[in-house]
Amino acid sequence: MNSLRPLWVFTVLVIGVVAGYGLQIVATTQGYPVPVLHWTSLVTMGAAALFTLIMGIRIKAFTSGRTRKRVNPIAAARTLVLAQASVYAGTTIAGWHGGILLGLLASAPMSSSVVKSSLVMIGGALVMVIVGWVVEQFCKLPPEDPSDPEAKTKGKDDQGYAAGTN
Question: Which Pfam families match (predicted)?
């Protein structure tokens, strides 16, 4: 499995900003409301971040040696994928609402509900990104003792992620 690449995350952010800005301009000129997520979306985002964190803590307990309970390799891989998906989803949501906010700066007062909603969604998205990034780090195994020839391949894949086979 590959680790997150900051350039790809930044690219997703920029695409989200451009898309949010463009659609905000098109929607408002056509008389439609600004396409912003409702505040209740924070519940879903919070649940996804919490679930990702709980799964990551299970992997971290195993990789740090605090528990001997084996981790299913598929569960470890799914946790890593979930963490990376959280980063990309959070980046997309933050970019989208950042673009909307950018488009509204000139036209809407800073006290409008759309501006407040965009700011709240950007904050929630940043929490998702941070949790995803931290959980991805939880999934990495610490470096092994170089004098142990079996330790180099046992329990991790090519990128150093936990395989859960110890």
Answer: DUF3180
Going by C-beta distance under 8 Å and a sequence separation of 6 or more, which residues neighbour residue 162?
59, 62, 63, 71, 76, 139, 140, 141, 155, 156
The total of other beta-carbon atoms located within 10 Å of residue 159's CB is 12
Q: CA–CA distance from 49 to each of 81, 83, 103 (Å)?
A: 13, 9, 28
Please answer whether residues 38 and 118 qualify as being in contact, where contact means their C-beta atoms are separated by less than 8 angstroms: no
Helix, strand, coil percentages in the chain from 3-state DSSP, rounded to 5: 65, 0, 35
N residues, the chain: 166
- Residue 104 neighbours by CB distance under 10 Å: 21
Q: What are the residue boundaries of the structural domains of the chain, listed by start?
A: 6-161
CA 154 to chain centre: 28
Q: What is the pLDDT of residue 158?
A: 58
Instruction: Determine the Cα–Cα distance for residues 160 and 155; give it in Å rounded to an integer.
Output: 9
List, for residues 99-111, the tens digit of each pLDDT value: 999 988 877 676 6
What pLDDT sits at residue 89?
A: 96
| DSSP assignments along 61-85, one per residue | HHHTTS--SPPPHHHHHHHHHHHHH
Average pLDDT over the chain, rounded to whole?
A: 85
